[in-house]
Amino acid sequence: MDTVRTEHLSQSIGHDSLSLFRNNVKMIEEIVTETFVRAIFYNNAIMSPEITTKRIRNTRRHLTLKLSSIRSMMLDGATNPKIMTTLNIPQRTFYRYMDKIYQEDRIELAKKNKQTLATHILLLRERLMQFSILLVIHRINQDL
Fold first, then answer.
1. pLDDT tens digits for range 71-85
2. Which of 2, 21, 66, 126 is the most exposed place for a label (fewest CB within 10 A)?
3. Which of 60, 65, 100 is nearest to 73 (CA)?
């Protein structure tokens, strides 16, 4: 509190009342701070969802669970509208999740392709080595 307000309050309500007022303000600030910290720590909204329109962002774990639920429902043959209604996901969010799933699949496929390519290269290298050994043996036999 700034000094001008403090002097004005002390003149109008007295020093004892002012110290009591300051203590109450400190106590209220601590309660409010503790409430906000708990709300943030437990990822809960301070107001009920009916009162506030602001949504709390999904955590990474929650997002992973949603993506795996969508993926498993897709594998079971569910249609996109059925998945959206079952999991209560808005259309725009659903397609954003689908994009994320496709990105993950592309990354996994690229890893598999690299492994497969490396395996093919090793097999071809081995065959080339065997062929070159056979050529050397054939050349030696011709010279004899």
1. 999 989 999 999 999
2. 2
3. 65
CA dihedral 105, 111, 112, 117 (to 10 degrees): 140
Q: Residue 120: helix, strand or coil by DSSP?
A: helix
In sequence order, the 6+-apart residues with CB closer than 8 A to the CB of 91 are 84
Closest Cα partner for 19 from 4, 27, 33, 31? Answer: 27
Query: Which pair of tokens denotes residue 74?
Result: 């897709």
CB environment 6-29: b (16+ within 10 A), e (fewer): eeebeeeeeeeebeeeeeeeeeee
Residue pointed to by tokens 């949504």: 55
Cα separation, 128 vs 28, in Å, equals 80
Instruction: Identify whether the C-beta of residue 8 lies closer than 8 Å to the C-beta of residue 20.
Output: no
Residue extents of the structural domains in the chain? 1-56, 60-143
